[in-house]
Amino acid sequence: MANRRFSHAIAEGDGISVIAAVEDADSARDAEGQRAEALVVRGNPASVREGTSLPILWRAAVAPEDAAEVADAILLPFDSLDEALHEAALELGLDCAVEVRDEDEIEQALERVDPEIFLLSPAETPSGMSPLEHVLDLLAAVPAGKLVIADHLDVDEDEVELLERAGVDGVIVHSHDVASLAGEPPPQV
Questions:
Q1: What is the rounded radius of gyration, in angstroms, for the C-alpha atoms of the chain?
Q2: Whole-angstrom Cα distance, residue 123 to residue 51?
Q3: Is 142 part of any domain?
Q4: Which among 2, 11, 122, 149 has the fewest CB atoms less than 10 Å away?
Q5: pLDDT tens across 3-18, in order?
Q6: Beta strands in the chain (DSSP E)
Q7: Do the beta carbons of residue 39 and residue 170 sit within 8 Å?
Q8: Measured at the alpha carbon of residue 108, what is the angle toward residues 121 and 45, in degrees to the nearest 5?
Q9: What is the pLDDT of residues 156-187, one digit of tens each?
Q10: Model confidence over 75-133: pLDDT tens digits?
Q11: 73: three-class secondary structure by DSSP
Q12: In the 8-state DSSP scheme, what is residue 5?
């Protein structure tokens, strides 16, 4: 069963949380060393788990029972959002991030399962709008009190600051981008 809270990792502390997309234990260790606050994994996170103490969001179609063995959260794409699956994951102690691409999906997800965490996807960015603008536009439709993650934006430090000021709690980045986006390390005490 999950013992690390993904939601706490992205909600705690000052500023936006950098969530590193990793594939193996080495990249997980590197991301943790560069101050990532959580990880996202597409493949089976069992080997990644061995390399890190950070919470892991498993981004795959997987049974909650399997996810609870090696991950701390699962991603539920809106297209396959199922109330029973969501409830089963929560009962197993997993956090659930619901991936949405537009305002209608946000509204319907709220009606179906009222998720604690939204992952805003720029996958269907309208013509004439940048992926960053689309995510910020979607953010306006998410009720206050929900955790929000921006998905795989190719962002620089200024754009991460913009996301933070807008109220985004976390941003998923490639593992090699973590150090430049995670901010300064905390002072030694």
A1: 16
A2: 30
A3: yes
A4: 11
A5: 568 999 999 877 899 9
A6: 17-22, 38-41, 56-58, 73-77, 95-100, 117-120, 147-150, 170-174
A7: no
A8: 45
A9: 889 999 999 999 999 998 766 665 566 555 44
A10: 999 998 989 999 999 999 999 999 999 999 999 999 999 999 999 999 888 899 999 99
A11: strand
A12: -
Domain that holds residue 47: 6-181
Domain presence at residue 186 = no
Helix (H) or strand (E) holding 43: none
Q: What is the pTM of this model?
A: 0.89
8 A C-beta contact, residue 28 and residue 47: no
Kindly state whether residue 160 falls inside one of the protein's structural domains.
Answer: yes
Taking the C-alpha atoms of residue 56 and residue 36, their distance in angstroms, rounded to an integer, is 11
Element of type H or E holding 167: none
Task: Look at the chain and count its residues.
Answer: 189
Integer Cα distance of 173 and 155 in angstroms:
8
For 116, left (φ over 0), alpha (ψ -120 to 50), or beta?
alpha
